[in-house]
Specification:
heterotrimer; A mainly alpha (483); B mainly alpha (54); C mainly alpha (223); A: globular; B: mainly alpha; 0% strand; rod-shaped
């Protein structure tokens, strides 16, 4: 993955090369995310760890921001990667795309350094513009917000112009519309108000309409592309499914926003809207799952009938991650989300480790998995490998990461359950109630398990990086030897 | 027993959506219906088109 | 011809049109609902407070009033109850000063990154207590351990003292770090917390209003 650009393996395919540049930064930020997560997990067990040096708030801020940013990098990378395949033409503004890449990377570096070394500011507008906006997930200071908007506009123009110039497939049409909404929504998080209810109202426009609507549709489009690419699925069928998914994802996800408006000062009517629309959110995720497995089985069956033995897929690790995506999206976003989406349940679970459990499995299952799959597609292409098969390292990576994240999720669910019953239901949620629940032996045990499973995840990540760095080279050498 | 199928308006500020929100899921069923009903029309118009094409 | 068998369910155009309709219409509904909600969560005015008009989010001058959180039979959950006038840091704040103080508090809340340990209105991180109704927490009231620990006589002074020197007043092995909060910023933060406790959160957090007596006796609310 590292040497692929230097040795010019891309045969002039600039868009894919640009995609790989984004993938690489994504992988580094993914590592940063996990390290910060480990620090925060340790602080739950050993409260004095790095106290007043690198507090939980800092570790947690970098943890979630690295998460969002690595996913955005991998998403942009995926789009640049698939663009020439889908449109049939080279991406229009490669130079501009590269410039945007460097601007974004420089900005992200500065923001992270400020987060780590300056951490907090005084209670002035200047702090919000230069240091830290202090709104979960959107902590990036305002100057960086504006930079992000400019970079994203450049990216969008690139994609749009290429789309207009080339073939306009169904996948690309969905992507163009989806990216427009995705980019535009960011603007809803870029203002200051002293009304905390209003603040949270618009904050959720960004957060929810990203992760429970536009990002999900984005994943649908990626999965559609990847299935065509990896198992040669039939485009008409894949695109039909994609439209069904758009229908159901947006149909449930847009008004599903209501499930964040139960308790932030917004009217009671959101109870009903949030409850039923968001309860339907898992449906498209089931559909995605069925669709991936159905296509896979169908293509396998066809190959068998035609007399090809074995699997028809040309990229084992990518396919493994995409199947994990179908399953993880359904389980993490669907099931774990449904657990606490009804107001009758949510009044107790809102703002507990239950949310953290859901957050971990959903971000991983719905997004990390498919983006890792796209990285494997990138590696396969970069080295010109016709058929990429899983190595021992690929298998260790997927096994350890999936096992680790599932373990963290289960541990946090148990911690959340304790917290909900004791802090919220039994003691009524005050300051002392909070700490009473944090001191429960079962809660502490769950936090210890979470930290251990975090380490398992991190070991898996090391295998993943190692595999991504080596698999292409080895496969290429093996291919050359076989020829 | 403190139960009524249709409850009087309880929220702080009266509004159209608050008014609809006074019975067993009346508001959400109303919104779902608004969204789903036109799909029947889309279905039949597409059916007509397909039959014509054949 | 009308009875010819065709499969609309596998027709791409049917799904495309349906997807466009549902997405577009759901968006329109969301925008409509948002306008309605924004109207309801816009801050009230000082006059509303004087005339006893209930607002979901009252004006900044709500810091001049006593706030309680009581079960409302009609609504089936607890709601904030704004009561008699009450001095805040020993004085009554004019609308202009109250707004400036709240603004300073909100800016400080963001600049100090409170939400990456605490939850506000239930949103944020889960490392430290929820602050939605922190102003009403029995622990901070007269006779409560937090007020006692700081040696102050009012909720606001106790909170402000704690915020300026949090690691001097540990309530748990997991302490709040010193964030360099100044005396003025601390006042602003307390105003922000008091204002937040007056927001109508549809009963979240449930069961919050416990008395100091219950709390001291290690008692529950269940009788």
């Amino acid at each position: 993955m590292l040497t692929s650009i230097k040795t010019n393996e891309f045969r002039g395919d600039k868009s894919k090369e640009l995609g790989m540049m984004y993938f690489r930064v994504a992988l580094i930020l993914f590592g940063a995310q996990l390290l910060m997560g480990l620090i925060a997990a340790i602080q739950f067990i050993v409260p004095g760890f790095l106290f007043e040096l690198f507090d939980f708030s800092v570790a947690r801020m970098v943890h979630i921001n690295a998460l969002v940013v690595w996913m955005l990098y991998a998403m942009i990378g995926s789009v640049y990667f698939m663009l020439p395949d889908e449109t049939g033409v080279e991406t229009v503004g490669i130079g501009l795309g590269k410039l945007a890449f460097w601007v974004l990377t420089a900005a992200v570096t500065v923001v992270v350094l400020v987060f780590i070394f300056i951490q907090v500011g005084s209670g002035t507008e200047t702090s919000i513009w230069l240091i830290n906006e202090g709104r979960e997930y959107l902590e990036a200071p305002r100057w960086a917000d504006i930079g992000i908007v400019v970079v994203v506009l450049t990216f969008y123009w690139n994609v749009f112009a290429t789309y207009m110039k080339g073939k306009q497939t169904g996948i690309m049409t969905v992507l163009i519309a989806d990216l427009f909404a995705l980019a535009g929504l960011y603007l809803a998080g870029m203002f200051f108000t002293d009304n905390i209810s209003m603040d949270q109202f618009w904050w959720w426009w960004v957060i929810h309409l990203w992760v429970e609507a536009t990002w999900e549709v984005f994943v649908g489009a990626l999965a559609a592309y990847a299935l065509i690419k990896i198992i040669g699925a039939k485009r008409e069928i894949v695109e039909m499914w994609l439209w069904i998914e758009v229908l159901m994802l947006f149909g449930s996800g847009i008004l599903g926003l209501g499930h964040h408006y139960f308790w932030i000062g917004t009217p009671e009517y959101w109870w009903e809207i949030g409850a039923l629309f968001s309860a339907l959110e898992p449906v498209p995720l089931v559909a995605m799952f069925v669709h991936v497995l159905y296509d896979w089985g169908k293509e396998q069956g066809k190959a068998k009938a035609e007399g090809h033995p074995g699997a028809v897929m040309n990229n084992g690790p990518a396919m493994a991650w995409i199947v994990t995506n179908a399953f993880g999206n359904f389980l993490g976003a669907g099931i774990w989300g449904f657990f606490h989406t009804l107001p009758q349940v949510n009044i107790y679970t809102h703002g507990t480790q239950f949310t953290a459990a859901h957050g971990h499995l959903a971000f991983f299952g719905a997004y990390a998995t498919i983006l890792i799959g796209m990285m494997y597609l990138g590696v396969q292409y970069a080295y010109g490998v016709k058929k990429l098969t899983s190595t021992f390292k690929s298998k260790m990576a997927i096994f350890l990461i999936v096992f680790g994240v599932l373990g963290m999720t289960v541990a946090l669910t148990i911690a959340g359950y304790e917290q909900v019953l004791v802090e919220r239901a039994e003691l009524g949620g005050g300051w002392t109630a909070f700490f009473a629940a944090q001191d429960l032996p079962w809660y502490i045990q769950a936090q210890v398990w979470r930290a251990m499973m975090g380490v398992v995840t991190f070991v898996g990540f090391i295998y993943l990086v190692w595999d991504l760095l080596t698999i292409g080279k080895h496969a290429k050498a093996a291919q050359a030897a076989a020829e | 027993m403190n139960f009524e199928l249709f409850t009087p308006f309880t929220d702080v500020v009266p509004s159209f959506f608050g008014w609809l929100n006074q019975g067993p899921m009346t508001l959400t069923i109303f919104l779902h219906t608004l969204i789903v009903l036109p799909m029947f029309w889309i279905y039949f118009s597409e059916k007509k088109r397909l039959q014509k094409e054949q | 011809m009308a009875n010819k068998k065709v499969s609309v369910w596998t027709d791409i155009q049917f799904w495309r049109r349906s997807a466009a309709w549902v997405t577009g219409f759901a968006t329109i509904l969301l925008i409509w609902l948002s306008f309605d909600t924004i109207g309801q969560i816009t801050m009230g005015t000082n006059a509303d407070l004087k005339n006893g008009v209930d607002k979901r989010v009252p004006a900044a001058t709500v810091i001049n009033y006593h706030i309680d959180y009581k079960m409302n039979k009609k609504r089936g959950h607890e709601v904030p109850v704004i009561g008699e006038k009450q001095l805040f840091f020993g004085k009554e704040w004019s609308p202009k000063d109250a707004e400036a103080l709240l603004r300073l508090g909100k800016l400080t809340e963001q600049a100090k990154n409170c939400m990456d340990c605490h939850t506000l209105l239930g949103n944020g991180a889960y490392y430290a207590p929820d602050l939605t109704k922190a102003w009403l927490d029995p622990a901070w009231q007269k006779g409560g351990p937090m007020q006692g620990m700081t040696g102050k006589n009012t909720v606001e002074e106790a909170m402000a003292e704690f915020l300026q020197h949090p690691s001097q007043y540990p309530t748990h092995a997991r302490m709040m770090p010193n964030l360099g909060i100044t005396a003025e910023e601390a006042k602003g933060l307390v105003a922000f917390l008091k204002h937040m406790s007056s927001i109508d959160t549809n009963g979240f957090p449930r069961n919050f209003s416990k008395t100091v007596a219950q709390f001291k006796a290690g008692d529950t609310n269940a009788h």
